[in-house]
Task: inverse folding
């Protein structure tokens, strides 16, 4: 089996080679950094020796064909993969110079610092208020009810949802429309004030208006947070991100300024993918 | 366009098939409904007599010397000769009866429990001492059965028939609702036998079962479903749990006898040991259904909670468990219903004993509804036939009540997501 | 492979066809414009008013082609949202056809001069020195179109370089004409006409140079316009 993986590895190396572009940033700009990360699901390798920096206050878009490991890579950044028993990770991932897979790192604390928004809106079957208040309550971020109210309201406002729901904070979160639910999930995530927000195809089920609202929100959130977003929409990646990373079969093929990736990608595989050619 | 034609033709066939299938389904429902109806009707009809009781009116003289009592209180009352008082007042109904054999037949019309009844009445009304009171006492079960069956059943001699006719003339025989059925424990005498003992026994046993099997079962399910690593050992446990659900229940009884009673010395015939054994039996059901319920909770919710920094434990108890609750409750209902109707394992641990007293705790000897029914069905007295049917009816009502309660609970827990 | 844009390798066959169609139309327009420049120069040099009129008339064709292709490009942008090389191709084409149309306009000017001059019975021999600059401007145009057809950025760089020759030629004509004018002020009017014609040809060279620069952008993704000494371009 490991032979098989090795074989696959060399094939891939021939096809892709070293990551093209600028995976690394100057030290002072780095928020998270991954070095030589491999991810395995049981015996199957899903991520092959990837290294990448994510800059402070930047939106990094991750694109690539289905099954290329974008979600897997994203989930290694806040150790969500820990919840999958067969998943094994090697390499090093740092958040502010601290190895998040280190022994003294508590994944629960890590996830409060690196929040996540999922592909499918997944509000809790609770009231809108309780959805947003869940994280702050969990971590004891509010000293009293007034504090909590404040957090809930500002989070909802920042997620651009407050005006739509201010009269029905007690209504169920699952009763909202898809786009509203997704914004609720974003509000829920930012209520914990994470430093990094990971988004896995946050707008994949939304209409253009809801998508635009969320993209606008991402742009605004960038001032305070670092954001990594997985998306299948080239236009979305082009619109919201400063840097774009292209993955192919578990390998990081190219990273670069979004402008450059979408006008003049350096790697043929990137070019083929974003222009809709046979790869 | 000939495609359309073809589809049209096949459509006709498809619709016909569908109609046929619906018909089959409807037939099946009608048939099973008929069966159910027959069963219920039969049981109800048979049970009706058990809900009424015949009474005979006697003029009992509570004279101090006949009873051998000077005053009435808790201690002295048991020395009273109430049996004699009942007998003499019975003879007084027909003063011309003098033959020993006839006298015996006459007193056989009144329940053997009448003496206790008048004793209790005197205890309640001490001022009756030294007076003669008209009281209604229970008739013997033979008389009861004879009356209910319009003379077809019951061992009643011709002489007795005449007396009964005479008594009816004088309005000294009445029939009323049989409250004893619900207020007394078991007895050898059908007119004194009640289901309360078994009912309370069942309740206590089920309470023990419920507490044990839900806590242990749900905990096991959560551990296996969410925390346990996927390996040979957990696979092995899983297979065993599934197999356990298919083990004949009597085996659990044997196990209970060997382990709980012999090894741990839990008192036999008690609701505690019964509950323990029934827990063993219902655990697999509850574990399997709880696991299925937990599995059906959208993993995205757990992920959402974990992604916000909840620990696994918090994610489970705050999100997965509440959503799985309806499913878990369904499993519990099925398990409890099973336990409620179970007899075989309880026979092994002595819950089949003849117990008159209503149990007052899980450590009192007790019996349960199905076992009581089984005991009555086994009794020779004619009146117990109706009692058996009544017992079954009560068991069914109990079951329905329990299920409805669980359904109400489930409705409250049920939430959309 | 380096220089090939694989415009026939999209998953969408329609897209392939649309791009191929657009590309061949650019070449067709290029051919037409080239013909116009040749004919315009010929008409002028040979004093052929008929040919001149024909050139003027044919310019509407060039204009129509530009409009049609602009529309196709807008449609492709709206429907396909091209990225990377596709995006560069569309952008280059939009710009190329603008320059081609301008070249067409200059050719039209040449044709118009020819008509005017022959009306006034001016002999054509004074314009013979235009043949030189014309052939050089045409060479730039041909090379640029050729580079576009083959997506050959090296050829495109050569074309851009060749434009310097056209500029030099124009300088030479300018000096020459100025001497004429100083020698014989009565010739000023005629000399001015020559100068205008030369100026048109010089502009044609510039537009052709622009086209070659678009080809470099198309192939390499680098904008080499307005780089004085093209050191960066050379590094390509
Ligand atoms: N829980 C898992 N168990 C086993 N294999 C997995 C698991 N999750 C993902 N994989 C495998 O890892 C590879 C990468 O999957 P991943 O979900 O990261 O892809 P992705 O790029 O996010 O795809 P998509 O765009 O479709 O979401 C795939 O080959 C997938 O089959
Ligand atoms: Mg994914």
Result:
């Amino acid at each position: 089996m490991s032979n098989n993986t090795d074989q696959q590895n060399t094939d891939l190396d021939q096809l892709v080679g070293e990551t093209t572009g600028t995976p690394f940033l100057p030290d002072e700009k780095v928020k998270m950094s991954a070095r030589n990360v491999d991810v395995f699901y049981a015996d199957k390798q899903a991520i092959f020796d990837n290294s990448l920096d994510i800059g402070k206050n930047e939106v990094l878009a991750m694109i690539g064909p289905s099954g290329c490991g974008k979600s897997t890579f994203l989930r290694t950044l806040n150790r969500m993969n820990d919840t999958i028993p067969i998943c094994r990770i090697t390499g090093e991932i740092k958040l502010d110079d601290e190895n998040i897979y280190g022994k003294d790192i508590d994944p629960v604390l890590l996830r409060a610092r690196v929040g996540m928004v999922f592909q499918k809106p997944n509000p809790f079957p609770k009231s809108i208020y309780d959805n947003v208040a869940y994280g702050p309550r969990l971590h004891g971020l509010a000293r009293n009810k007034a504090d909590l109210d404040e957090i809930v309201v500002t989070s909802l406002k920042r997620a651009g949802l407050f005006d739509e729901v201010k009269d029905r904070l007690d209504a169920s979160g699952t009763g909202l429309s898809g786009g509203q639910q997704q914004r609720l999930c974003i509000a829920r995530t930012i209520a914990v004030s994470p430093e990094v927000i990971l988004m896995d195809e946050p707008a994949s089920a939304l209409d253009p208006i809801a998508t635009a609202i969320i993209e606008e929100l991402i742009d605004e959130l960038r001032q305070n947070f670092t954001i990594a977003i997985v998306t299948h929409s080239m236009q979305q990646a082009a619109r919201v991100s400063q840097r774009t990373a292209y993955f192919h079969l578990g390998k990081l093929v190219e990273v670069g300024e979004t402008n450059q990736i979408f006008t003049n990608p350096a790697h043929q595989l990137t070019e083929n993918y974003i222009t809709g050619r046979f790869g | 366009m000939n495609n359309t034609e073809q589809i049209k033709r096949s459509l006709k066939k498809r619709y016909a098939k569908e109609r046929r299938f619906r018909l089959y389904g409807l037939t099946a429902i009608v048939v099973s409904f008929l069966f159910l109806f027959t069963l219920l009707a039969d049981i109800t009809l048979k049970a009706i007599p058990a809900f009424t009781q015949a009474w005979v009116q006697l003029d009992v003289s509570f004279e101090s010397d006949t009873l051998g009592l000077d005053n009435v209180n808790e201690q002295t009352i048991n020395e009273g000769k109430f049996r004699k008082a009942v007998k003499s007042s019975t003879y007084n109904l027909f003063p011309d009866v003098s033959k020993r054999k006839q006298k015996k037949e006459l007193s056989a019309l009144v329940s053997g429990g009448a003496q206790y009844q008048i004793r209790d009445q005197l205890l309640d009304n001490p001022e009756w001492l030294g007076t003669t009171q008209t009281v209604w006492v229970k008739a013997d079960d033979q008389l009861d059965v004879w009356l209910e069956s319009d003379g077809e059943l019951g061992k009643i001699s011709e002489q007795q028939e005449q007396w009964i006719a005479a008594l009816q003339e004088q309005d000294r025989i009445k029939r009323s609702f049989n409250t004893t059925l619900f207020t007394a424990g078991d007895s050898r005498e059908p007119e004194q036998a009640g289901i309360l003992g078994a009912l309370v026994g069942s309740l206590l046993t089920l309470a023990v079962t419920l507490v044990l099997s839900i806590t242990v079962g749900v905990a096991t399910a959560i551990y296996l479903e969410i925390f346990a690593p996927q390996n040979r050992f957990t696979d092995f446990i899983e297979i065993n749990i599934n197999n356990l659900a298919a083990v004949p229940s009597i085996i659990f009884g044997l196990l209970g006898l060997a382990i709980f009673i012999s090894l741990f010395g839990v008192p036999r015939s008690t609701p505690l040991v019964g509950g323990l054994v029934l827990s063993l039996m219902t655990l697999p059901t509850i574990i399997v259904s709880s696991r299925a319920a937990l599995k059906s909770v959208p993993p995205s919710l757990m992920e959402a909670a974990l992604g916000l920094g909840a620990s696994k434990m918090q994610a489970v108890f705050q999100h997965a468990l509440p959503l799985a609750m309806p499913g878990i409750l369904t499993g519990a209902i099925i398990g409890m219903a099973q336990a409620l109707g179970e007899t075989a394992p309880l026979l092994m641990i002595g819950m089949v004993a003849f117990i008159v007293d209503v149990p007052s705790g899980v450590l009192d000897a007790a019996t349960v509804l199905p076992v009581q029914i089984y005991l009555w069905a086994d009794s020779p007295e004619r009146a117990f036939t109706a009692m058996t049917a009544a017992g079954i009816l009560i068991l069914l009502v109990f079951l329905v009540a329990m299920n409805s309660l669980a359904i109400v609970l489930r409705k409250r827990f049920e939430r959309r997501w | 492979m380096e220089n090939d844009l694989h415009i026939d390798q999209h998953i969408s066959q329609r897209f392939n066809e649309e791009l191929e169609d657009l590309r061949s139309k650019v070449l067709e327009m290029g051919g037409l414009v080239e013909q116009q420049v040749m004919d315009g120069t010929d008409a002028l040099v040979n004093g052929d008013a008929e040919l001149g009129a024909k050139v003027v008339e044919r310019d509407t064709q060039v204009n129509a082609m530009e409009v049609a292709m602009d529309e196709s490009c807008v449609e492709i942008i709206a429907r396909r949202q091209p990225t990377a090389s596709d995006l560069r191709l569309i952008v280059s084409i939009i710009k190329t056809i603008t320059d081609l149309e301008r070249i067409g306009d200059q050719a039209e000017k040449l044709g118009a001069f020819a008509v005017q001059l022959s009306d006034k019975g001016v002999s054509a021999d004074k314009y013979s020195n235009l043949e030189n600059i014309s052939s050089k401007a045409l060479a730039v145009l041909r090379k640029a179109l050729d580079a576009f057809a083959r997506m050959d950025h090296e050829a495109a760089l050569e074309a851009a370089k060749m434009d310097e020759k056209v500029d030099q030629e124009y300088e030479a004509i300018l000096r020459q004409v100025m001497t004429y004018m100083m020698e014989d002020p009565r010739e000023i009017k005629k000399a001015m006409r020559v100068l205008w014609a030369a100026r048109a040809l010089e502009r044609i060279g510039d537009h052709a140079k622009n086209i070659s620069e678009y080809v470099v952008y198309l192939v390499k993704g680098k904008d080499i316009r307005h780089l004085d000494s093209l050191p960066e371009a050379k590094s390509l």
